[in-house]
User: Fold this.
Amino acid sequence: MQTITKTYQTYQFEELDDKAKEQVLESYRTDEWYPGDWWHEAAVEDFVEDRTKEGWDLKTKDVHFDVSYCQGSGASFDGTVNCLEWIKFHKLEADYPTIVKILSDKKSWDLDGNIHSNHYANHYCHFNTRYLEIEEDGQLEEYIYGWDNEKKEQPIIDGWNTELLELEKAIEADREQLSRDLEKTMYKEYEHYMSDETITEEIIVNTENRFLANGTPFNE
Assistant:
């Protein structure tokens, strides 16, 4: 039996020439394990936390995005929004006085807006795959029940119905803008982790990484 031992000259990333470094960087970018799932976790958690402060109720699993630079790329989210909390956060009480009064008088009542998916959501996840609707639960009818005073009731009814339509448009516009902003954030995060600087840092911090002169990873 004959044993043959082959010796290799290996290098750390910093010792490679520019052409070899570029090969290493590109191999990282195209490797299916990089950048993994962790690159977006903080951004998604921040998004959920910020929306919660605004009256939205959603979890990290409700956030959807695609940063593949294709037709269906984008971002969106599912969940519900407490209309009164949303109004107060945006300091819009003066725009919706009837809604604010009714919901404030009856503190146990909630008026929620719910995000629904449309047929585009079967293939894509951009902002236009969803829409928001405010779903009443008889709040107005119960509020004026027993008044039997049309002169008193009609301004409340008209105010509620008019404000409700405007509020739904406003929250839907907010949902759309939040989705567009989320898309920008996710692209920014993704591009950060795919940049030369970030990948280089990832390589260098792992001192066990060794390469051949042409940039091929060395595995013992």
Summary: The chain has a mean pLDDT of 92. DSSP finds seven helices and six strands in the chain. Strands lie at 56-57, 63-66, 74-77, 80-82, 112-117, 130-135. The helical segments are 18-29, 41-53, 83-89, 97-105, 139-144, 150-193, 196-205.
